[in-house]
Design brief:
The chain is an alpha+beta fold. The chain has one domain: Lipocalin (Beta Barrel), CATH 2.40.128. The chain is built from four helices and 13 strands. A hairpin with an 8-residue loop joins strand 1 and strand 2.
């Protein structure tokens, strides 16, 4: 009985540590963005995040396989690149179980997917996220007819990840709400007030409340060439996928190049979709690993729900682009049970009237517990 009590106390301590870490991450991001110059604060922010997370991991160093799932916090924001337009903010907290730690009902459902059987190595994922989209001129209170509408998206997700040594398949179902109930106005303007940015005045023109969701599928291959002595390697990752839903409907494909050591630890850093795929889990073969990466994803977009206005309104003059591409580059550091990544993303125009392409950054912290 004493052992069970000790285990419960350890678990509570871990959760408390993770909660404190996530709060610290959010506070650091808000404070950092107030300088408005990413080149000055971003390196310091990365170092502080990695150091603070190290304290939590050191405190829970007990080797217990039952607690080897992966928590991921992803913060994407155009303030990282000094802009404020289009896809302006995304935050996602997710948990991915250790291999084979999957509920029976989810395993039974997973065998319906291609190339999944009773012997497949599965992981279960759960996520909660929020995204914000705005036009370029946020100080204009009136409807801007030839720019994207204001929109916010609050969602939860459930995923099945199928892993082999050379391939990673992900099936993800996101369900949520787009509209005022997602509280995009309060979140954006509350943050802007704290960091001294202009108030977004046009939220009265945002998309109306509606149920939103999408089924996403991705397949990624790993082609690893590694020196066994120095553990330096090169990895070429092609990928294909699709999304079907009223948030995004598209098919996509692309390629990622990674250079570094211990590349078999993961399949790339996590991102908020639509994006180049990565992996929400990682494994460390020794104490420390790193790599640099660059990639491109091309999507044929049949429907983008965040660009749609009421078709009955005469002001609607948005013409979505059918082809959209993301180019990204960044770096990943891994130490013991930590992974930290930063990604710069350049996204081509999503609609014909768009004046400038998107540029934003993605900061991801992963902790294995």
């Amino acid at each position: 009985m004493a052992t069970n009590s000790s285990t419960e106390t350890d678990a509570a301590g871990q959760l408390s540590g993770v909660a404190h870490l996530l709060f610290s991450v959010a506070s650091l991001c808000c404070r950092a963005m107030s300088t408005l110059n990413p080149s000055k604060w971003l390196p310091r922010l990365l170092a502080l995040l990695f150091a603070s997370a190290s304290v939590v991991v050191a405190a829970v160093e007990v080797d217990n396989p039952e607690r080897r799932g992966t928590w991921n916090l992803i913060v994407e924001n155009d303030s990282f690149t000094g802009t404020d337009r289009n896809y302006t903010s995304g935050v996602q907290l997710s948990y991915l179980s250790r291999a084979e730690r999957v509920p029976n009902w989810l395993r039974r459902a997973a065998v319906l997917f291609p190339d999944v059987n009773d012997r497949s190595k599965l992981r279960a994922g759960f996520s909660l996220g929020h995204s914000i989209f705005t036009p370029t001129e946020i100080t204009q209170p009136l409807l801007i007819a030839d720019d994207r509408p204001y929109a916010s998206y609050l969602y939860g997700g459930i995923a099945v990840v199928v892993e082999t040594e050379e391939r990673l398949d992900t099936w993800l179902l996101n369900l949520g709400i787009v509209g005022p109930s997602a509280r995009g106005e309060e979140i954006q303007n509350g943050l802007h007030e704290k960091i001294g940015s202009p108030t977004a005045e046009g939220w009265a023109n945002q998309l109306r409340d509606q149920f939103a969701g999408a089924l996403v599928s991705e397949r990624r291959w790993r082609n690893l060439y590694q020196d066994d002595v120095y553990r330096l390697g090169v990895d070429i990752n092609p990928h294909v996928g699709f999304s079907l839903g009223n948030t995004n409907t598209y098919i996509n494909g692309g390629l990622t190049l990674r250079v570094g050591n211990d590349l078999a630890n993961d399949f790339g850093p996590p991102r908020i979709r639509p994006s180049l795929p990565g992996s929400s889990y990682f494994e460390t073969q020794d104490g420390f690993a790193w790599y640099l990466f660059a990639g491109i994803d091309v999507r044929y977009v049949a429907y983008n729900g965040f660009l749609e206005r009421d078709p009955a309104r005469a002001e609607n003059r948005i013409d979505p682009e059918s082809w959209v591409a993301d180019a990204q580059a960044g770096a990943v550091l891994m130490w013991r049970r930590l992974r930290l990544s930063y990604t710069y993303i350049y996204r081509t125009d999503e609609f014909e009237q768009q004046l400038r392409p998107d540029e934003f950054g993605s900061l991801a912290l992963s902790v294995k517990l």
